[in-house]
Specification:
The complex is a heterodimer of chains A (323) and B (318).
Chain A lengths: L2 E12 L2 E12 L3 E5 L6 H9 L6 E4 L2 E4 L2 E2 L5 H7 L4 E4 L3 H4 L6 H13 L3 H14 L5 H5 L8 H13 L5 E5 L7 H18 L2 E6 L2 H7 L2 E6 L2 E7 H6 L4 H9 L48 E5 L2 E4 L2 H4 L5
Parallel strand pairs in A: 3-9, 3-10, 7-8, 8-9
Antiparallel strand pairs in A: 1-2, 1-4, 1-5, 5-6, 10-11, 11-13, 12-13
Helix pairs in contact in A: 4-5, 5-7, 7-8
Chain B lengths: L6 E12 L8 E13 L4 E5 L6 H8 L7 E6 L2 E2 L5 H7 E4 L13 H12 L4 H14 L4 H4 L8 H13 L5 E5 L7 H18 L2 E5 L3 H7 L2 E6 L2 E7 H6 L4 H8 L49 E2 L6 E3 L4
Parallel strand pairs in B: 3-8, 3-9, 6-7, 7-8
Antiparallel strand pairs in B: 1-2, 1-4, 4-5, 9-10, 10-12, 11-12
Helix pairs in contact in B: 3-4, 3-6, 4-6, 6-7
The chains are: A alpha/beta (323), B alpha/beta (318).
Chain lengths: 323, 318
């Protein structure tokens, strides 16, 4: 397996606030890597940092961000423009706000290809029609002339996916691609992404807050909390042996039909995610952690609890060293 | 046995008239179509369905915020349309989806919570103060938080405020319209647990609308499935989840993604046709998406059948 994206020690700050701290993960070709976490954990900022689309007041630092073997950290804006939308494409959460309401679907879809590959409009439209068919949009010819408001939410999200695929990207970054959709449509869109991954050998970085989605589509998972990756591993390993108290808490919060009796209380995590400022040290979860102790104010070590399964927590060392 | 149900809906319908374009005729959108159901005191009626199925319109009618086109709703035996606003507010209260837009950003929390009492016009100031303090504590907020503005609270805390505001008049029924879908899972669990405690302690009856079936399964005692304005299936929660009858219910249940790795993604098999409430199909309104559709489904509207006690299903297969 070769890595399509390798992020090492990414940090993003907005003034004194640390949005992402020391995040490292790798997305392999033909694999879905999920970043899961609650609002404010830094998962969307991570995606924007990779694409270099952060707001002006943000500062990005990293050891390296390697895309297909090339370090894109030092790329100029011009160089990045050639990568973005071309070899690395993104799907956003809200298809209604990320499509331009005053341009037709056709002109928005062909624009990327014409910008990056300088093709004729006819060729670009043919490719758009082909891709729309591929993602399951009926009557694609007609859709080219329609405006975003004339499509349903599910169709708009399919248009976003088709648009992202226009230039044959190697990496697809999808930020909550199904959150705005009905459950029935959600399953269809996720199946489509899984098929495309197989067919085109795409690497997918999927950002979500939904552990159900993670369990069903991810090959690898990274759990983020307060800007850090606190646990990462293969999906099956992470769900079979969740090793960080936060990961365990998160899994217990999700109601699963048949698992908890009606009327019984769900597991929950008291409190809220803290805002990270300069000078913070120790484990950011210790304020909500049922197993916190004195040692948690000190720098947190990483432990390997299984093959490729890393956890950032004092617990394994307290329980007598790494397993 | 002859206890009056907390909530009874009889053939409740709501039709909207939507202006067409310049040269197009006005269209009729049947958002809710002849819904009849009754709910015992202390029960939780879960309402599930895709967006546009009419679940929010139904909730608005139960709250008296939307007049039904036809049919009638009864609350503890009283005709809803005969109650004035104050009396209605003492019986039924809402908790809405988005705690960011349903709280006035310029009012302090304690004023937001006390407003329903003030609107009644019959409470003494010290009584208002006493009740506000008591309900704040009951939902897990401090007196100090009561003096803040909504913007200073987190999403979960704001939803606690919305719950406190709903409960301050000691209503009998609370209509929760997607109360946790704007919240993180860890906070969602806190709010669901709180709602459950309050229901037991205060003997409340809930109408609970959600698109999240796992949440509905957890909180509801009975579930009704809506499709394009019709109640296509209704049963106790345990029965509906263990033996879903209607093909649409089956598809909905299949599309729930539980956190169980290795199961992969379900093939829901509903196709790409999206339901349009302004253009309801003939016969069974679900037939264009139904895997088990037969010729008669396209022409004859199915009747409601009762395959067992307490269960209804609207499908030609039953």
């Amino acid at each position: 397996m070769t890595a399509i994206l390798d992020v090492q020690n990414l940090a993003v700050r907005f003034g004194p606030t640390l949005a992402v701290r020391n995040a490292s993960f790798t997305v392999q070709k033909g694999e879905t890597h999920c970043i899961v976490g609650e609002s404010g954990c830094g998962k969307s900022v991570t995606a924007l940092a990779i694409m270099n689309l952060l707001a002006r007041n943000a500062r990005r630092d990293a050891k390296s961000i390697a895309f297909a073997g090339q370090d894109i950290l030092a790329y100029s804006d011009r160089q990045m423009e050639d990568v973005r939308g071309n070899r690395m494409a993104m799907i956003f959460q809200e298809p209604m706000t990320s499509l331009n309401p005053s341009y037709t679907i056709g002109s928005q879809m062909t624009e990327v290809l014409r910008r990056h590959h300088n093709t004729t409009r006819d060729l670009a439209e043919q490719r758009a029609i082909g891709l729309m068919q591929r993602v399951g949009i009926t009557a694609p010819q007609m859709r080219l002339g329609q405006y975003p408001h004339q499509l349903s939410g599910g169709l708009r999200q399919r248009v976003m996916i088709a648009m992202a695929l226009m230039c044959d990207p190697e990496l697809l970054i999808a930020d909550e691609p199904t959150t705005a959709l009905d459950v029935t449509v959600q399953a269809q869109i996720l199946r489509l992404l899984a098929e495309l991954k197989q067919e085109l050998g795409l690497g997918i970085l999927l950002i979500t807050h939904d552990l159900g989605i993670v369990a069903r589509v991810a090959d690898h998972v990274s759990v983020m909390y307060a800007g850090e990756v606190i646990e990462t591993g293969r999906t099956a390993d992470l769900f079979a042996n969740p090793s960080h108290p936060y990961t365990r808490g998160l899994i217990d919060c999700v109601p699963v039909p048949g698992k908890i009796k009606p009327g019984e209380a769900l597991g929950s995590i008291p409190g809220t995610v803290p805002v990270m400022k300069d000078g913070f040290s120790g484990c950011a979860f210790r304020f909500r952690c049922p197993q916190a102790s004195e040692i948690c104010t000190q720098a947190v070590p990483r432990h390997e609890v299984g093959p490729n399964h890393l956890v950032q927590c004092h617990l394994p060392s307290r329980q007598g060293g790494a397993q | 046995m002859s206890k009056t149900p907390a909530l009874t809906l009889k053939d409740l319908s709501c039709t909207f008239h939507v202006q067409g374009g310049l040269f197009q005729p006005a269209r009729h959108v049947r958002a809710v179509d002849r819904i009849s159901v009754s709910l015992e005191e202390g029960g939780v009626l879960g309402i599930v369905g895709e967006s546009g199925c009419g679940k929010t319109t139904l909730a608005r009618m139960i709250l008296g915020l939307q007049n039904p086109t036809s049919g009638e709703a009864f609350v503890h035996g009283q005709r809803l349309s005969e109650l004035d606003r104050r009396a209605r507010a003492r019986l039924i209260q809402p908790v809405f989806q988005d705690p960011f837009s349903s709280l006035n950003p310029k009012h302090r929390i304690e004023d937001i919570i006390a407003l329903p009492l003030r609107a009644q016009g019959s409470f003494e100031p010290h009584e208002i103060e006493r009740r506000t303090a008591a309900i704040l504590e009951r939902v897990g907020l401090s007196t100090e938080q009561g003096r803040r503005l909504p913007a200073e609270l987190s999403g979960g805390q704001r939803q606690r405020v919305a719950i406190a505001r709903a409960l301050i008049l000691e209503p009998r029924i609370v209509v929760c319209d997607e109360p946790t879908s704007a919240l993180d899972v860890s906070v969602q669990a806190q709010i669901l647990n709180l709602l459950g405690e309050l229901r037991r302690d205060l003997n409340l009856t809930y109408v609970f609308i959600s698109h999240n079936l796992a949440v509905v399964e957890h909180v509801a005692s009975e579930v009704m499935v809506m499709y394009l304005g019709r109640m296509v299936e209704h049963n106790t929660t345990a029965r509906l989840f263990s033996e879903p009858r209607h093909p649409y219910t089956q598809a909905l249940l299949a599309s729930v993604l539980t956190p169980e790795p290795g199961l992969g993604l379900p093939d829901v098999g509903l196709g790409d046709i999206m339901p349009d409430p302004a253009n309801i199909p003939s016969g069974c309104r679900f037939h264009p998406r139904c895997l088990k559709a037969q010729p008669q489904c396209a022409t004859i509207e199915p009747l409601t059948s009762h395959p067992s006690d307490h269960a209804t299903v609207e499908c030609h297969l039953f």
